[in-house]
Design brief:
The chain has 856 residues and is an alpha+beta fold. Helix content is 38%, strand content 23%. It starts with 26 loop residues before the first strand and ends with a helix.
Length: 856
């Protein structure tokens, strides 16, 4: 819509506009009228019944100023609503507006934009109607919110919609993946046939109609036999027909009217049900005589459908979250139960039981490293081998599911009694190994509203389709197929695929030589990488966004984010050193205290039984301990020279861990005036992530914090030292006591952002000049041409490693440090024992520590 300011007296000459008539389906229902105005507030379209509503004496309204027909106050109310329109599909409504001066009739009005036009739809307000249509909806929503699942929700909603609209039949109509529909809930008046359970072919609702349902949520046909009013003129000043997609009064296709007449329907109402902006289904309402719903009731029905969609999304999301949590728990159980690395045969029943707990089936077969294993009802080995050959061509490295195997593999007709449908889970990166779930044939009858094989026939009007006329119950007996695999089951199988890859590869490691084991581990890492990297990126993004809300300057923000990322990195190092097994909470605290407090670390003591936490819990505690430590150093007990921190672990009777943090001897403590991100981490991370408890008190004598860690997050308990050991204390050298470097420095790093950060660190550490290279050849050239005093080498440079550069520097006697994300497991650590390993992500303190290590 173009916003143009024009004097009320201004008129636009439309005499030269192209008004050649063409046939369009632009018409409206008789119980309302429609006016389209151009940006200059002149009438450019109108339905032929508009004069009956506005009392116009003019024979032709086209080109007239709209103020000639509307009361001034009413027009101003409409103008105000137009300013509120937000988006192409937005609609604004007014109730009980006086439009005609001197008339006692009040009108309900809806306005929306259509291209360069503003559409005004007008209906007379009926006596006794409530203007507060939300009052209809509030008790309806309260009832549907009590639903425990989608089926119950739809049953309640159907009854509520029938009570609101008074239609003879109200159905909840859900679309399937093949675009066919099924009536899954229904409320009907006495002596009205039930359509519950009926299926409708996809052709009953064409694709263009589905798109309209998605955009315009409500569609009313008050009388299928009424006369409709055409739009005059059929083309506007720009030469195009008027787009009535968002109109509530527009009439519908004659084909749809014929469809309803064939069903014996006198009036209908359709209200769209959306899920995540996609068309999930409809409230389909039928009445066997004409029925005009007031504008308030229609608005209430639309609002109810929107609120219903929110409740539906919540139930669907709750189900998805529960399924994800179950799969994660299953992953952890499999990893712990199958840690021994024995053969697939020895653990096959465990794997099969785990899959069956999430995905119902009648039998499971596995083909791993040429070994055939079965449990339950499955095809014989020779037939399964044929299935595997088919899967190798049809489902390489992805989930494959079909509920009618014989359609894609005709030979499967011979064993539909055991394997009519299958879901294949590949457990290797190349087409070879699979774990396959089978379902038996299920013979059932599907009830259709008419024969689905002939939903339409060619009509008498040339190439126009006429709606089918048979709505008698037609039953189709289904053979040769299983119960379909749901999208949730396929998604669960896809999530479990990575777990099964890891399980199978772990079991087959003992039977392969080192080269094959290395390749399979790399494949496993690739399979896991997408999931874990996305989680890490989401976490880092959250840290950046939340930290930015607390920082008052860019340097402060940089330091805060860096500290928090380093805290997570230290926890990750501890987990990787333990091979992702449960790790010590005491070690985590020692590491964090040593890294951040330096000489003040001796003022922190720990007592009680140490807890070995599972990886997810350790990552959560890493951020909590980091925030407690940094806050103490900035504002609490460790911000002066006399305070101390006492940390006590307590093992409770139910094996939960109680962690007590006590600060004393420092300055007086006051509660923060605002809740920043750090405080949020301390108070909410453990309850949110681990379902534990957190209680923080800002006492004048020092911070007091108590945390409860649930038993499921604690793998076991062990003894803990009462204070930091001398060895640990000695490792916490302060950045200020570590020497820097001098001369020219070479940085070899193929990631530009990391290279820029490393360059800043090197300059801060004392380098005179820094050269940055991204490849082996470029680095060698720089070594030959310049005097290099020191080097920092990234181990992995894409398709090559920095080993040739390290050899060249060793020959010249130039010291260097390796930087890697693989810790010290790389073979370069043994080949160049004097070169320290700097683990990513690193900061200036880590860099200086590596220099000190190399110098000692």
């Amino acid at each position: 819509m173009t916003n143009t300011t024009v004097s009320p007296d201004t008129k636009i000459d439309l005499t030269n506009c192209d008004r050649e008539p063409i046939h369009i389906l632009g018409h409206v229902q008789q119980f309302g009228c429609l006016i389209a105005i151009n940006p200059d507030w002149l009438i450019c379209h109108a339905s032929d019944n508009v004069r009956d509503y506005l009392g116009s004496k003019s024979a032709d309204m086209i080109g007239e100023p709209i103020r000639n027909y509307f009361d001034g106050a009413g027009l101003n109310a409409i103008r105000t609503r137009v300013q509120h329109l937000d988006g192409d599909d937005a609609i604004e409504r007014l109730f009980g507006v006086q439009l005609i001066s001197g008339s006692d009739t009040l009108y309900n009005v809806a306005v929306h934009s259509s291209g360069q036009n503003i559409i005004i739809e007008i209906e007379p307000r009926r006596e006794g109607e409530r203007t507060d249509y939300t009052s209809y909806v509030r008790p309806m929503i309260e009832r549907v919110r009590r639903a425990r699942n989608v089926e119950e929700l739809c049953k309640i909603a159907a009854r509520q919609m029938k009570a609101l609209t008074g239609f003879d039949r109200v159905m909840v109509y859900r679309f399937a993946e093949d675009q066919s529909g099924e009536v899954i809930a229904e409320a009907v008046s006495p002596n009205i046939d039930s359509f519950l359970g009926l299926h409708y072919p996809a052709s009953d609702i064409p694709q263009q109609a589905r798109e309209l349902y998605r955009r315009n949520l409500i569609r009313i046909i008050s009388d299928v036999g009424e006369k409709v009013s055409p739009i005059i003129p059929e083309r506007g000043p720009e030469g195009k027909p008027l787009d009535l997609s968002m109109s509530g009064l527009r009439a519908v296709s004659p084909i749809h009217i014929e469809y309803l007449k064939n069903m014996g329907i006198g009036a209908s109402l359709s209200v769209s049900i959306l899920s995540r902006e996609n068309l999930w289904g409809l409230f389909a309402c039928h009445h066997y005589s004409p029925r005009i719903l007031s504008y308030e009731v229609r608005s209430a029905a639309e609002l109810f459908a929107q609120m219903f969609s929110f409740v539906l999304d919540q139930l669907l999301a709750d189900g998805a979250r529960a399924q994800t949590a179950k799969i994660q728990m299953l992953h952890d159980q499999l990893m712990s139960q199958l840690a021994g690395g024995r053969s697939v045969r020895e653990h096959f029943s465990t794997i099969a039981d785990a899959l069956s707990s999430v995905i119902p089936n009648d039998g499971i077969a596995a083909w791993v490293d040429g070994e055939f294993l079965t449990l339950g009802k499955t095809p014989p080995q020779e037939e399964f081998a044929r299935i595997v050959r088919f899967l190798n061509t049809a489902a390489s490295s992805r989930i494959y599911a079909t509920h009618k195997l014989s359609d894609v593999l005709p030979a499967a007709e011979d064993y539909t009694d055991t394997a009519a449908g299958l879901l294949a889970v590949p457990v290797s990166r190349r087409p070879r190994d699979y774990i396959v779930l089978f379902r038996q044939e299920i013979t059932k009858k599907v009830s259709w509203a008419g024969n689905p094989e002939k939903p339409v026939t060619l009509g008498p009007n040339g190439a126009r389709l006429t709606p089918r006329k048979s709505f008698d119950l037609w039953q189709q007996t289904v053979h040769g197929q299983s119960e379909p695999w749901t999208s949730a089951e396929i998604s669960a199988a896809d999530q479990l695929r990575v777990t099964l890859i890891e399980v199978v590869l772990r079991m087959s490691d003992a039977a392969n030589d080192e080269r094959i084991r290395s390749n399979e581990r790399q494949e496993l890492l690739i399979a896991e990488l997408n999931h874990r990297v996305r989680n890490i990126l989401n976490l880092i993004r959250g840290l950046v966004i939340q930290s930015s809300r607390d920082a008052s300057s860019v340097p402060e923000l940089t330091a805060t984010i860096g500290d928090r990322v380093q805290a997570l990195a230290r926890a990750h190092d501890q987990l990787t050193q333990a091979n992702w097994a449960p790790s010590s909470l005491a070690d985590l605290i020692h590491t964090e205290v040593n890294a951040f407090l330096g000489a003040k670390a001796s003022r922190v003591s720990i007592s009680g039984p140490d807890a070995l936490l599972v990886p997810t819990a350790l990552n959560t505690l890493a951020l909590v301990i980091h925030e407690l430590t940094t806050n103490s150093a900035k504002y609490g007990a460790l911000s002066d020279s006399s305070g101390e921190i006492r940390i006590e672990f307590e093992r409770l009777e139910d094996d939960c861990l109680s962690l007590h943090w006590r600060e004393s001897g420092g300055p007086a403590v006051q509660a923060p005036s605002r809740v920043g991100f750090g405080t949020t981490i301390i108070q909410k991370s453990i309850p949110h992530e681990l379902s534990g408890e957190a209680n923080v008190k800002y006492q004048l004598t020092g911070l007091v914090a108590d945390f409860l860690i649930p038993a499921r997050s604690v793998a076991s308990y062990a003894d803990v030292e009462s204070e930091l050991s001398e060895e640990r204390q000695s490792s916490s050298a302060s950045t200020d006591t570590v020497g820097g470097i001098s001369g020219n420095m070479l940085i070899v790093e193929d990631n530009m952002i990391i290279a820029l950060d490393a360059e800043d660190i090197a300059i801060s550490a004392g380098a005179d000049k820094v050269f940055v290279c991204s490849s082996v050849s470029e680095a060698k050239t720089k070594i030959e041409s310049d005097d290099i005093s020191f080097a920092l080498l990234d181990v992995n440079l894409g398709s090559e490693t920095s080993e040739p550069i390290a050899e060249m520097l060793s020959e010249r006697g130039t010291p260097f440090i390796f930087a890697t994300g693989y810790g010290d497991s790389t073979s370069l650590a043994t080949k160049f024992p004097d070169a320290p390993i700097l683990k990513k992500p690193y900061d200036e303190a880590d860099f200086r520590q590596a220099i000190e290590e190399m110098s000692s």
